[in-house]
Amino acid sequence: MVILIDGTNSKSIKINVYKDNKLFLKKIKTNINIYEYLDKFFRKADFSKIMCIGINIGPGSFSSTRASVAYIVGLSFGSKIPVIGVSGFDILSRDKKPLILNAGRGRVYIKSEDKFLIKESSVYEEIDDNVFFSIIKERLQKKQFDSPLTLLPLYMDDL
Fold first, then answer.
1. Residues 59, 104: contact at Cβ < 8 Å?
2. What percent of the chain has pLDDT over 70?
3. Domain boundaries, the chain
4. pTM of the predicted structure, to 2 decimals
5. Which of 4, 36, 97, 117 is geometrically suited to a Cys-Cys bond with 54, CB 3.0 to 4.6 A?
6. DSSP element (H, E) containing 125
7. Domain 2-88+128-158 is in which class?
């Protein structure tokens, strides 16, 4: 079982569970406390069946991205479940240029020719769950995991 978490949107969190390379469960929750929802979700999980957790590390809403990454890092560290962090830019860049991601507060991140901008807009691209899963699957097969000690959210200041 592979679990994908996308908490980069300040208004919702998306959790996809894959079994045998097929989407088994898709949950999108809005207007929730990310910590409480993830805690409730993982309390029901059978940890022995989780092969890895994929997390969208951003960019996105500062607080919700930070909260979801921090929760998954702690869970990975404590449970020894491998974690793979993938940036939204990596997910979208498989076939699109320029890239436009939700930055929250009516702003978008734009990446074009290795330049990053923040603009006021409500137009942005949604992360494609299938592409997100294919990246996680490739890294899982190669055993390219991230250390929970060094995995951090991607903030625009880092770019």
1. no
2. 76
3. 2-88+128-158
4. 0.81
5. 4
6. none
7. alpha beta
